[in-house]
Amino acid sequence: MKDLRLIDKVATGGLKPDVTIYMKLPSSSSLGRIKRKKDRLELEKASFHKRVNEGYKHICARNKKRVKVVDAAGSQKQVHDRILRIAEKCLKK
């Protein structure tokens, strides 16, 4: 993770977004939603997806004020409404 933070810092010039929305969905559900031809990442083993998920959990935990976790289960409309509520709160600040 330390290497990723360094790469991120160099690539972004140290800039951070005001808010990041992380759409949380188990790997098994997210892979099932893919309707297009699978690319290299989708073809990876479950252990890879578990490590990626752990990385995102770590990022969320380290950035609790900035990262908003959205339950991505449900319909597109339900997820959209959840994200919209977060965006509206951020814009009111």
Protein topology:
Layout: H1 2-12, E1 20-24, H2 27-33, H3 46-62, E2 67-71, H4 76-92
Parallel strand pairs: 1-2
Attribute tags:
93 residues, mainly alpha, Rossmann fold, 4 helices, 2 strands, 11% strand, globular
Characterization of the model:
It is a single chain. The chain is mainly α and 93 residues long. It has one domain (2-92): 3-Layer(aba) Sandwich (Rossmann fold), CATH 3.40.50. The chain is 56% helix and 11% strand. The chain has four helices and two strands. The protein has helices spanning 2-12, 27-33, 46-62, 76-92, and strands spanning 20-24, 67-71. Strands 1-2 form a two-stranded parallel ribbon.
Strand runs, count:
2
**What would you give as the CATH superfamily?**
P-loop containing nucleotide triphosphate hydrolases
How many helices? 4
Quote the distance from N terminus to C terminus.
31 Å
Instruction: Compute the average pLDDT.
Output: 85
Q: How many structural domains can be distinguished in the coordinates? A: 1
Q: Report the principal-axis shape.
A: globular
Structural class: mainly alpha
pLDDT < 50 runs, ≥5 residues: none
Quick gist of this model?
This protein is mainly alpha-helical. The chain has a single domain, classed as 3-Layer(aba) Sandwich (Rossmann fold), CATH 3.40.50.
